[in-house]
Structure of DUF5671 domain-containing protein:
Amino acid sequence: MPSDRADLLRFIEAARQQGASDEFLSQLLRSYGWPQREIERAFFELYERLTEQPIPAPSGGAGESARDAFVYLLAFSTLGIWTQALGQLGFIYVNQFIPDPVSPSYGDPAFDVAFSLARLIVAYPVYLLLMRQLIKELRLYREKHYSGVRKWLTYLTLLITVLIGVGTLITFLTSFLRGELTLRFLLKVIIVLALDGGVLAYYGAWLRRRPVQRQNPT
């Protein structure tokens, strides 16, 4: 056993003897910088020592992680589809209300509206169903709050969202410095930043979400 984990295990055993709960110790060690995986391993070894029994391996195992990754990837993919469709609808209406006489519009606006609405109508309900399932599982299985799949894929989504927002701001600033800023362009920038900001706010709070404390029956 590595010396760091041995020290961690001894600390947990001593703290439990003083009446500290496992949940309190887990939160304390996380706040002190210990990785969640190392804390879990220490508790695994502790309970195996106390029970003199190995922890049984679940039948799902890696299959559960693969399923979680599939659900998260599908949820974030549909998020990208319906937010992009919503943004395109906003762009179409801006072009209609503030036409640009210099740059002619390409494509069929009726087709663009229909295609955007179709993506929105299909992708948004699927996204809601998937998020409802994920939230339900977080309530039932508190350990999923600390899932690496959940954190990595959410941070990847936030990274893409931030890059889109940064690219939009760079384009906005370039047009401003060249004196080419128009109301039409400004409204499109606001649409992109509003959608980006909504995604960042929601999933930033999603990552900070912690398990609900369960009340012991009296």
About this structure: The chain has two domains: 3-51, 62-208. The radius of gyration is 25 Å. The longest helix spans residues 62-97. DSSP finds seven helices and no strands in the chain.
